[in-house]
């Protein structure tokens, strides 16, 4: 196996063959097992679309072409000599492309266009339900709501009762902004109607303020999520990648299927935040930093991590995986295990823990909320689903939604007999993912729940070592970038066309 996949050219051909075969199977629904072991309840299986998309296809193709061009240009060695401003501008262009692709893919769902899909999903009680709770009487007084959160949690709609209150507070704040600004409310409602939003045929009419805050919330989520290319590039660079390779990785982030398809969700919003946390950790633990720099970077990482934990109980796991990748990279580059790596990591963890308890100042009991949410999660999902089935299907879901070509390239890297920075990062991620999978904490919807892990797969599969005199992974770089970007774009479109997501 090492000899077979030792060449980047051969590994890329293998990635292309596997991806094309998989997408052909998806298009023909060769077996329902491609979508999961069994439908809900109690297991999980992605739905199958029957109607041909009426909107968004042309836009998805156009933005894919734009992003492919940006990826190919970003992978050029010329960027190693370019200034920081040029690189930032390139990644901002990729962020715009990310926003365009995501909205176009959303428009391919059943509906009257992207705006209609975004508003209906945000208003839905079954999609995430955060907005539903945010505009309810329970959340009218945020302080009282937070103080009673663990008491209210078991009776909240599906997703809201298995997560911390951060997403609900987010939508409540936007709803308050809309209701206090009639002009903003009218503008958002008008934009929703112009964008194709239609009232449901059944049920009471939706209040204008609810429509306005739903659209505003979805737009904010998409705007923040579109910054993932910059954050992922920063993480890759902090791990030791060359500037051109980090920029190419950043641009490719926009084409990772899970990030582009699962919209509008808080998982999307968390991706750039979590990547920023682990990029700060990687910078703090890298060789060549003085103590003051390490403490400042670690403190910043911990503070932002605390915000992430208020929005997701899974955030500590995602940050731990990225933190281990950062530690592996720093140790491979000569950082001292104790003072350079362990100490900044411990400081960041302490600051994050402090941030976890800060909401107690307004009456929220994070420990009680965590216990209640974990109890709901265990009762409704974990205990009812097959451990053995999901040990396999979680990894399959991750392989599909992180991007089959990236999965093949990561496996190729793991099968080579090589050491150094790239191998350390790849093996750290692989072992972390295996342990997480074997823990049985997640059983179903890994393609959505593990979205924050998908940029790690991208980084581990493609990272190079800036210090290397000869970098085998960079050979045939331009063909690799073209093929990878095209395969990822095709995966996004085919999955949206044939599967009902999320």
Account of the 3D structure:
The structure is a single chain. The protein is mainly α and 502 residues long. It folds into two domains: 376 residues, no CATH class; 104 residues, no CATH class. 68% of the residues lie in helices and 1% in strands. The protein contains 24 helices and two strands. The chain has a two-stranded antiparallel sheet. Helix 3 packs across helix 4 and helix 11 packs antiparallel against helix 12. The longest helix is centred in the first third of the chain and has 24 residues. The chain is globular and about 65 Å long. About 1% of the residues have low confidence.
Write out key terms for the chains shown:
2 strands; single chain; about 500 residues; mainly alpha; globular; 24 helices; two-stranded antiparallel sheet
As laid out across the biggest beta sheet, the strand order is 1-2
Number of strands: 2
Integer average pLDDT:
92
- Strand-residue proportion: under 5%
Helix content: 55-70%
Spans of at least 5 consecutive residues whose pLDDT stays below 50 are 472-476
Radius of gyration: 22 Å
How many strands, what sense, and barrel or not for the largest sheet? 2 strands, antiparallel
Overall 3D geometry?
A: globular
Protein name: Glycosyltransferase RgtA/B/C/D-like domain-containing protein
Organism: Engelhardtia mirabilis
Transmembrane segments: 52-73, 85-108, 211-234, 246-263, 269-288, 295-321, 341-362, 391-414, 420-438, 480-499
Keywords: Membrane, Transmembrane, Transmembrane helix
């Amino acid at each position: 196996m090492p000899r077979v996949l030792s060449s980047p050219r051969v590994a890329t051909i293998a990635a292309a063959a596997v991806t094309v075969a998989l997408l052909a199977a998806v298009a023909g629904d060769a077996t329902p097992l491609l979508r999961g072991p069994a439908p809900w309840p109690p297991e999980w299986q992605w739905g199958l679309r029957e109607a041909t998309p009426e909107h968004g296809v042309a836009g998805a193709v156009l933005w894919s072409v734009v992003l492919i061009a940006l990826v190919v240009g970003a992978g050029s060695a010329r960027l190693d000599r370019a200034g920081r401003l040029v690189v930032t501008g390139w990644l901002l262009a990729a962020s715009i492309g990310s926003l365009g692709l995501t909205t176009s893919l959303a428009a391919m769902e059943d509906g009257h266009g992207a705006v209609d899909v975004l508003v209906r999903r945000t208003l839905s009680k079954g999609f995430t339900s955060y907005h539903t709770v945010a505009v309810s009487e329970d959340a009218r007084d945020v302080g009282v709501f937070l103080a009673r959160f663990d008491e209210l949690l078991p009776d909240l709609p599906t997703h809201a009762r298995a997560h911390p209150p951060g997403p609900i507070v987010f939508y409540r704040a936007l709803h308050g902004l809309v209701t206090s600004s009639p002009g903003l409310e009218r503008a958002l409602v008008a934009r929703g109607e112009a964008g194709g939003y239609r009232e449901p045929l059944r049920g009471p009419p939706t209040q204008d303020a609810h429509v306005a805050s739903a659209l505003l919330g979805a737009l904010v989520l998409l705007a923040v999520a579109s910054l993932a290319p910059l954050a992922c590039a920063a993480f890759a660079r902090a791990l030791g990648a060359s500037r051109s390779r980090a920029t190419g990785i950043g641009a490719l982030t926009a084409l990772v299927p899970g990030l582009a398809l699962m919209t509008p969700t808080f998982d999307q919003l968390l991706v750039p935040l979590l990547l920023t946390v682990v990029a700060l950790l990687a910078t703090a633990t890298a060789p060549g930093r003085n103590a003051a720099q390490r403490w400042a970077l670690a403190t910043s990482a911990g503070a932002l991590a605390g915000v992430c934990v208020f929005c997701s109980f899974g955030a500590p796991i995602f940050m731990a995986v990225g933190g281990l990748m950062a530690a592996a990279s720093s140790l491979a580059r000569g950082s001292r295990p104790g003072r350079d790596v362990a100490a900044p990591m411990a400081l960041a963890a302490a600051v994050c823990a402090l941030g976890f308890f800060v909401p107690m100042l307004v009456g929220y009991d994070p420990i009680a909320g965590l216990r209640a949410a974990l109890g709901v999660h265990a009762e409704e999902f974990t205990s009812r689903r097959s451990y053995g089935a999901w040990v396999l299907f979680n990894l399959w879901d991750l392989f599909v939604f992180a991007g089959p070509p990236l999965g093949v390239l990561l496996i190729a890297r793991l099968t080579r007999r090589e050491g150094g920075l790239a191998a350390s990062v790849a093996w750290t991620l692989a072992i972390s993912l295996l342990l997480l999978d074997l823990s049985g904490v997640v059983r179903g919807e890994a393609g959505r729940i593990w979205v924050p892990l998908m940029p790690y797969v991208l980084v581990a599969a493609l990272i190079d070592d800036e210090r290397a005199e000869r970098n085998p992974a960079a050979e045939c770089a331009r063909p690799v970038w073209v093929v990878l970007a095209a395969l990822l774009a095709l995966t996004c479109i085919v999955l949206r066309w044939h599967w009902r997501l999320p």
